[in-house]
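Report of the visiting student (M.T.), summer placement. My assignment was to run the structure pipeline on a short list of targets and document each run. The first record concerns Ribosomal protein S18 acetylase RimI.
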Amino acid sequence: MVVIQKATVKDVSIIAPLFNSYRVFYKQESNLVAATEFLTERLNQNQSYVFIAFINNKAVGFTQLFTSFSSVSLKSVFILNDLYVDKNYRSQKVGASLLLKAKEFCKEKRYKGIALETAIDNPAQKLYERLNWKKDADCFHYFWTAN
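After the run finished, the C-alpha cells were exported:
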C-alpha cells in the first residue's frame, strides 16, 4: 500500500537520495550534497511543496510543486516540476498516488490547477492522460537559456 506524506525540512534526508536519482535520470551529474541543499532551501523558504510516497515505510517516490500565478484568471496555479518513482517500485501505483495527492492538495488550496511538462517520449504520458490531465494542443512552450 502506498502512503503519501507532505514533507517538511526534517524530511530532506529522506527525499534527497530520490531527488538526486531523479536528476541523474535527467542526465545530470550525481550530487547528493547539492540536492540536499536545494531541497532544504526550497522547504525552508516555503518555495515548494514536496510529497513523499512510502511503501512499507520506505521512501520510493516524490513530487514537487511550485506556485505560480495566472494573470488572466487572477488565481494561483501549481507547476508540477518533479515527479519521480524509484525504478524498483514503478507499476505499483506510486506515481498515480502522488499525482492524485497533488490534485487533492491543489483543490484544498483553491488553486486554479496544476501544469506540468514532460518529454515527448516520456511513457508517463499514459498515466497523466489516464488521470484526466489534458495535453495542451493550443499552445507552444518556449524556453530561453541564460547561459
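The first helix runs from residue 12 to 25. The chain has a mean pLDDT of 94. I thank the supervising group for their guidance throughout the placement.
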